[in-house]
Design a protein that fits this description.
Ribosomal Protein L9, domain 1; 5 strands; Methane Monooxygenase Hydroxylase, Chain G, domain 1; 3 domains; flat; mainly alpha; 55% helix; three-stranded antiparallel beta sheet; 11% strand
C-alpha cells in the first residue's frame, strides 16, 4: 500500500472509528488485500477470515459516512469514493472466490472441515455448502430417474479435489527455514531456507501451512 492510499484512509476514517481495532486503517486494508490475493492464487480453500472481513465492512461504512459530510464541490470527494469502491471490490472478490471454490470442491470441503478442529468455513459458508450439496444430490437423484444406471455413487465417492501440487509464486514476509521443495520424484526433495523479501516459484503443497500461518504470501 502506497503513501497516497494511507493519506486517503487517514483523511476519511476518524480515529474513533478505529478504537476497537488493533491495526491502523491502512494496515487493516493491507491485510484484507493480502488474504484476497492468497485466496485467489491458492488451489485450496483457505481458512476463513470473517473477522477481518467484518472489520473492513465496518470501516467501509464509516468511510462512506465521513465522505457524505464533505461538500459536493470538494474535488477530493471523488478520490475518496474511488478508494471506497476499490476496497469494496476487494472484499466482494474475496468472498466470491471462496464461494466458487466451495461450489467446485463442495464434498471435499465439507469432508475436510468435519475432520478439522477449527473449520475453514465460516458459519454462512457452511450453510451455503450444505444447501449446495443438497441441491447437487437432488439433481443427481432426478437424473437417475430418467437415466437409470448413471454412476451417481461414483460422483459421491470420487469427488473433485484441489490440485495441491500446483505451482505458485510467493514472497516471504519473514525468514523461513526448512522449506521442502517437492521435485515430483518421490523422496528426492530439497530443503531450502527462504529469506524475508525473497520471491520464488514452488509447489503449493510444501508451503501451504506457512501461507496459512502468515510467514509467506502469494503474489
Amino acid at each position: 500500500m502506497d503513501e497516497d492510499t494511507d493519506d486517503i484512509l487517514n483523511n476519511i476514517i476518524d480515529d474513533d472509528d478505529d478504537a476497537n481495532i488493533q491495526m491502523t486503517p491502512a494496515e487493516l486494508i493491507q491485510k484484507m488485500e493480502e488474504i484476497w490475493i492468497n485466496e485467489k492464487f491458492a488451489p485450496e480453500l483457505l481458512p476463513h477470515e470473517q473477522e477481518i472481513v467484518d472489520l473492513v465492512l465496518s470501516q467501509i461504512s464509516a468511510m462512506e459516512d465521513n465522505v457524505e459530510t464533505l461538500p459536493s464541490a470538494d474535488f477530493k470527494k471523488g478520490f475518496y469514493q474511488l478508494e471506497i469502491d476499490r476496497i469494496r471490490f476487494v472484499v466482494t472478490s474475496y468472498l466470491r472466490q471462496r464461494l466458487e471454490k466451495i461450489e467446485t470442491y463442495v464434498l471435499h470441503v465439507l469432508k475436510e472441515d468435519e475432520e478439522r478442529e477449527e473449520a475453514y468455513l465460516s458459519e454462512a459458508e457452511q450453510q451455503f455448502a450444505l444447501k449446495y450439496k443438497e441441491a447437487l444430490e437432488e439433481h443427481f437423484d432426478n437424473a437417475t430417474m430418467f437415466y437409470p444406471g448413471l454412476p451417481f455413487e461414483d460422483w459421491k465417492s470420487n469427488f473433485v479435489r484441489p490440485n495441491m501440487n500446483s505451482f505458485v509464486f510467493l514472497k516471504a514476509k519473514s525468514n523461513v527455514e526448512g522449506v521442502v521443495v517437492d521435485r515430483g520424484q518421490g523422496d528426492d526433495n530439497e530443503i531450502v531456507d527462504i529469506k524475508a523479501g525473497s520471491q520464488m516459484l514452488i509447489s503449493y503443497k510444501g508451503v501451504s501451512d506457512l501461507i496459512k500461518k502468515g510467514d509467506l504470501r502469494l503474489i
